[in-house]
Design goal:
Two copies of one chain form a homodimer. Chain A is mainly α. The first copy, chain A, is 76% helix and 0% strand. In chain A, helix 4 packs antiparallel against helix 8, helix 5 packs parallel to helix 8 and helix 8 packs antiparallel against helix 10.
């Protein structure tokens, strides 16, 4: 999908901005997972959840390092996104351990899908960094196991969790759209301003439809209706 | 201070129990620091705080590994302490970033002093592990810097933080005393049941007096009255 290497300063700024968004998302996920770990009914599960948080921090570090390679300070490109992620996590604060597990599986799954989609609009090296932060197979195994065990212990919880999953999807998509609309550099990346593949309204709609499909698949893995 | 190597099963159980208490403390501190990091006004400070949380997790792993060397499952020896630590953190939930910083400096400082004191009552290898989890010089430097910058930005905050420090000390000492009283194996370690140095009421009083002195020193480093 030939598009120029990032020597155009505006293009570089746009990619750094995008990486900053992803980095802030990882740092926020780190804090939330670490805090939600305390809701685990068993110490073993608490440790497993804490380890997921550690992985998010590692991803944060990868993204921050790539931001520095572009000549930007991570904090500077992350700051504009702090409020948005804080608001998302405030609106989706789990009230039970199972809600926390489903949020980690479904919410972070949507975030990873979104990251994979926008990775198509950046240079190859940055794309590799993004892909390294969304390789979540082991994580999915851990979370599916936690979710299934929790649901097996409480057969009546699945209706409420199905609603919870729907709410997480709605909030995540809303946030993605708000961010795309508010951040000019991100919008410039997603459209063809830098000679990249570009994304018109129709293709943007397709992107969100793919995110919804994958969300439905994940809910099905949990045995829940999306 | 010659006392037997831990081949006595009861003695081993008592040490494993003690290590479990410290391990749970580290895991709880990990979650709290990671969550409190979100209160940081600047992303750089947020990252610095998150890194302190990561260090606590590393300490948790050291302690859990030592528990396994004694033939115990970490979760089993940690579980009895989960409620106590949760209650402590619930009662000392910071409401501002500076309260979070002071809690990390003062609260975890008291916990480290307590760990150092009881390390005198365990075998040499376990003592080395405990000492590795309380070597906090770099941490203190980071926290003092965060606290001083925060207080410099708000000259009127020191009175409230002095009260906050006093409350943290009170809650921490209360928790230490409750734990010592409730856990028979810990009481057995601290007294001379296993032929160790032992700790009568007078020496226990001296121990808490030392903790109070070091707390006063830490508060002084912050420029606060204990």
């Amino acid at each position: 999908m030939g598009f120029p290497l990032p020597d155009d300063p505006e293009y570089r700024a746009a990619i750094a901005d995008l990486l900053g968004m992803l980095a802030l998302g990882e740092l926020a996920a780190f804090s939330r997972l670490a805090a939600d770990a305390e809701m685990a009914p068993a110490i073993e599960d608490r440790e497993a959840f804490a380890r997921l948080a550690l992985t998010e921090f590692t991803h944060y570090e990868l993204l921050a390092a790539r931001v520095r390679e572009f000549g930007y300070e991570p904090a500077a490109v992350m700051s504009p996104y702090a409020e948005g992620f804080a608001a998302f996590h405030e609106r989706t604060r789990p009230s039970t351990w199972l809600e926390a597990v489903v949020k980690a599986f479904v919410g972070d799954g949507i975030a990873a899908d979104f990251a994979r989609e926008i990775a198509e609009f950046v240079d190859g090296d940055s794309r590799s960094v993004i892909h390294a932060t969304v390789a979540h197979e082991e994580r999915s195994t851990v979370l599916l196991d936690l979710a299934r065990r929790g649901m097996a212990a409480d057969a009546h919880v699945s209706g409420r969790l199905a609603l919870w999953g729907r709410r997480l999807h709605g909030e995540a998509i809303t946030q993605a759209q708000v961010v795309a609309a508010q951040r000019e550099s991100l919008a410039a990346l997603l459209t063809d301003q830098f000679g990249g593949p570009g994304l018109d309204l129709a293709r943007l709609g397709e992107l969100f439809a793919r995110l919804a499909d994958r969300h439905t698949d994940r809910m099905a893995l949990l045995g829940l209706t999306a």
